[in-house]
Design a protein that fits this description.
The structure is a single chain. The chain has a single domain, classed as NAD(P)-binding Rossmann-like Domain (Rossmann fold), CATH 3.40.50.720. 46% of the residues lie in helices and 14% in strands. It contains 8 helices and 7 strands. InterPro entries: NAD(P)-bd_dom_sf (IPR036291), Sc_DH/Rdtase_CS (IPR020904), SDR_fam (IPR002347).
């Protein structure tokens, strides 16, 4: 059977672990070549190994998405190696450990917004000409913190609300030019970024996870299934949408 992304080239940021790695592996299983972007070169190399085990072409690029020069270099190298980009998954992100305004330093605010929101802008800007050239798809990782409070601190929640606005405006600006943009809004997902929070046993967090209708947190491959849908032609009429995938958290 022909994969749903057969012949496509995908760039996945934050692909060294967690949701990003699961997305890279899922895309590879559906026939895509995958450029793995991550700030951690060793983690990125590990994802490349996993992708290549599925028979797909892949390469790793060490990228700081909050730095325009780093993004520019990675974009140039990716296009030189793969020749095109059909799918962009903006997944790189950091957490703020539920810090409130008084607990958040200016440096922490700049770091969280720089990676979670500015980084998305820089990567999209660098790759948009390639996406426009072939009619591409952008999938942005937001969070339930993009629509409600309580899933993170002030910086994280602000950044994830911004991701949803960025996605909608991107769709409005470039949908008619053949580029679709949509967002994924996960709830609690067990990843290397969130595992310390879950293992620490914060009572409020654990109680929230236990109280959602699904009665558990998600695993990264479950989020990757949704990313595949939004990246594929199966979602051809979906523009500017935000898909909540939270085990029912926001339904309560």
């Amino acid at each position: 059977m022909i994969g749903r992304l057969e012949g496509k080239v995908a760039v996945v940021t934050g692909a060294g672990s967690g949701i990003g790695r699961a997305v890279a592996e899922r895309f590879a299983a559906e026939g895509a070549a995958v450029a793995v972007w991550d700030v951690n070169a060793q983690d990125a190399a590990g994802t490349v190994d996993a992708v290549q085990e599925r028979g797909a072409r892949s390469a790793a690029y060490a990228v700081d998405v909050a730095d325009s020069a780093s993004v520019g270099r990675a974009a140039a190298r990716t296009l030189a190696a793969f020749g095109r980009v059909d799918v962009l998954v903006n997944n790189a992100g950091v957490f703020d450990h539920y810090a409130s305004v008084p607990e958040t330093s200016e440096e922490q605010w700049d770091r969280v917004l720089g990676i979670n929101l500015k980084g998305m802008f820089l990567v999209t800007k660098a790759l948009l000409p390639a996406l426009l050239d072939g009619g591409g798809t952008v999938v942005n990782t937001s969070s339930i913190s993009g629509v409600v409070a309580g899933g993170g601190g002030i910086a994280y929640t602000s950044s994830k609300h911004g991701v949803l606005g960025f996605t909608r405006q991107l769709a409005a600006d470039h949908g008619a030019q053949g580029v679709r943009a949509n967002a994924i809004l996960p709830g609690a997902v067990e990843t290397p970024m969130t595992r310390p929070i879950l293992e620490r046993g914060d009572a409020a967090v654990l109680e929230t996870v236990r109280s959602v209708p699904a009665r558990r947190h998600a695993q990264p491959p479950e989020i990757a299934h949704l990313a595949l849908f939004l990246a594929s032609d199966e979602s051809s009429f979906v523009h500017g949408a935000g898909y909540v995938i939270d085990g029912g958290w926001t339904a309560l």
